[in-house]
User: What shape does this take?
Amino acid sequence: MKAKVSIDKFVVEYTDVTIGAYYGLVLRAAKNGELYKQTICHGDGYSHELHLKKANGAYLHVFYRNWREPEGSKYIMRLEARPEYYFHFKGVLDRLRHAASGIYYVNCDLAYDVQASMKDVMVFPNDGRRKMRHYKGTRYFGEKHQRKTNGYCRNYNKRLELLENQNVVIDYEQTRIEIVDKPKHRIPLAELLHHPPEQNKHYFAAVITDWDSLPKKRAEQARQLRDGVEIEKKKDWYTRKVVKETLAPSYQIDFNELAREAWEPLLEELCGVLLGQQKPQVQERPLQMAVTKTVYDSSPTEHDNKNKGCADFGK
Assistant: This one.
């Protein structure tokens, strides 16, 4: 079963960035009118956060000096944004590239969109310990504090989300499965195209186009897994096994195959810009991702709720 693939968020880290380079970034952003918010945080995570924003809506979140790093004069700087927004901060990227000792891929949110209703899309984790929870029609696999961990998943009605959040109307059903890819070890950005995510090990997913073709008992088991119904522990493993065997030949969404096909088209240009290997034509590039035969992106939604527990030093 085919799905269209996009990247909703992309995170990279620059190593050995000096304090002077960080404050130079702050001053240039303020001078250019791009400094949306600067904060100093007290607690876990990063001690400095910087949020840049262009007049056209493109944003860049900057996090500097992880609390786990030893005292020194050089620290990690993390950048987080939608992939297409990086192209609008080429000056920042060029300066950071020269200031850092290396650039590494940290994680991304990989989204799989299918033209089907939520009632026909089934996603369940291969690990029975990962439970589903529901909130406002979205199915979550993982707790809130696990939002940035590998394998965290959201499954929701993308058509409804576009309408409610962006006032965008599409005339067909669309369901999104969004899974976090976060390798155990950071990958040098220059090698990233050789490391497409493998997410079949985390989840089994299927789009069931003809429920009546399934045996009655199997259809009921599939609906229970789809809805996250608690199944007796001793039966849970067997239920997952037989549902997979029934649905895989005709209905399975193969995350690994889709990711392999989409990975290079989605990231080749972005990696080139981050590594300084090509010059993006920003004026001719709309705020959306490049399209391939099985890859497309939705309209962007900005996420800027990263300032809890921070001391705000103004815009």
Q: What stands out?
A: The CA atoms of residues 156 and 296 lie 17 Å apart. The chain has two domains: 8-107+262-278, 116-173+201-253. Residues 279-315 have pLDDT under 50 and may be disordered.
